[in-house]
Amino acid sequence: MKLSRQLPLNALRVFEAVARLGSFTKAGEDLGMTQTAVSYQVKLLEEHVGELLFLRQARRAVLSQTGERMLPKVAEALGLMADAVADARQQAGDILEIRSTPTFASHWLARHIGAFQLQHPGLAVRILRIEKPVDFRSDNADIAIWRGDQPPADVEAHELFRLKYAPMLSPALAKTIGGVTMPADLLKLPLIGASSKWWGTWFQSNGLVSPLPGTITIDADGALDLEGSAAIAGHGVALLSPFLHREELEAGRLIMPFDVFKKDDLSYWLISPKSRRKSAKVQTFRRWLLETLPPQILTPSRAAQ
Predict the structure, then answer these.
(1) What burial letters (b/e) apply to 256-271, b meaning 16+ CB within 10 Å?
(2) How many folded domains does the chain comprise?
(3) For 145-155, what is each residue's pLDDT tens digit?
(4) Which among 86, 97, 210, 293 has the fewest CB atoms less than 10 Å away?
(5) Of 88, 103, 138, which one is at a domain's C-terminal end?
(6) CATH number at residue 201
(7) Are 199 and 207 in contact (CB under 8 A)?
(8) What is the pLDDT of residues 24-33, one digit of tens each?
(9) Torsion sign, CA atoms 66, 272, 277, 27
(10) What is d(CA 107, CA 147) in angstroms, rounded to the nearest whole number?
């Protein structure tokens, strides 16, 4: 019997969308279908299985026990099929698609990826900056570098490092107050940051409990990248990573008056879909990244590899 007659494949795709979004209406919008068509496909699958897959509630669809058992394998199977299509489309010229947080993409990855391509001339690389966790079920990315407390669920994840930050500013801004020689001097300048939490911790570690001056707030994803640009432009002082802003420090566009650091609350993670864990290009990039990153910043488990 043909596979198409054994399994209602389109209904499985609709089932995964409803389960992921928790709504027949949202699933229809995601798939470009009417709510009636979504309901029909789910009913078709329920008849095929012989069990209810969703408990219909006001304005949301909740998985039944049978639906909860089905979802992980259905999502994995759909991911494998998407990977098969993606691999076929890239067969003529293999492409490695990387998603990265803005700061790491612009301040480290873009500056080093040329060496990777020289080592692997047959592999084209495409890098896109992301400001929210990548969803490998709907994204063709092969791998992503993400900053967070924990990696997204249902991915292959490796913790890379947790950075440390210190105040940095432009030399011209420092001159406006006759130079910065003591931590208290920073209280005379605008402090760049979406929250005063880090600044409060940093000043406290230097024995200062004075109220903070007005801060320049950058309330957006990818704020670290924007904060660095604002500091280089002389708009204020930002808590930045000497690892990511090494070139700006060496060129004199930024100065770091003090080597007292605030450790990041979040880690950088290397993530990829579980269905591509054995992909040669994913393994090649992971190996290159771990070999190229400075050993001193890697977490102990990564540095030992």
Answers:
(1) bbbeebbebeebbbbb
(2) 3
(3) 999 888 877 88
(4) 210
(5) 88
(6) 3.40.190.10
(7) no
(8) 888 888 888 8
(9) positive
(10) 14
